[in-house]
Design a protein that fits this description.
The chain is built from four helices and no strands. It is mainly α and 99 residues long. The longest helix has 29 residues. It is elongated and about 55 Å long.
């Protein structure tokens, strides 16, 4: 971790790997929280927008698949399991809403 705190990036003389790592993880967390809040709001107040294979539900599935693939390649196993479980439950909710 000490090396990350002092290693410079080639893009800017003030850019450090540590700051880039913290920034990436912070932005990633905020985006995930936003996606969760939006889906929860829509599911509670406007379920018809997510019911079945709609643009929003398919978009959410695509994002979840990308999160699973990215986490599998770059992150630790528990994160992969969380995203995979979220993906499976989201798909299950769409199939249940069709019946």
């Amino acid at each position: 971790m000490q090396v990350m705190k002092t290693t410079k990036l080639e893009v800017d003389k003030n850019a450090l790997v540590w700051k880039a790592w913290i920034g990436f993880n912070s932005l990633f967390s905020v985006c995930l929280a936003f996606m969760g809040v939006c889906n929860a709001y829509l599911a509670y107040h406007h379920f018809y927008l997510l019911e079945g294979p709609t643009f929003l539900s398919i978009s959410a599935i695509v994002v979840l698949v990308l999160l699973v693939l990215i986490s599998y390649k770059y992150l630790i196993k528990p994160v992969v399991i969380v995203f995979l479980l979220t993906f499976i439950l989201y798909l299950l909710s769409i199939f249940i809403s069709l019946h």
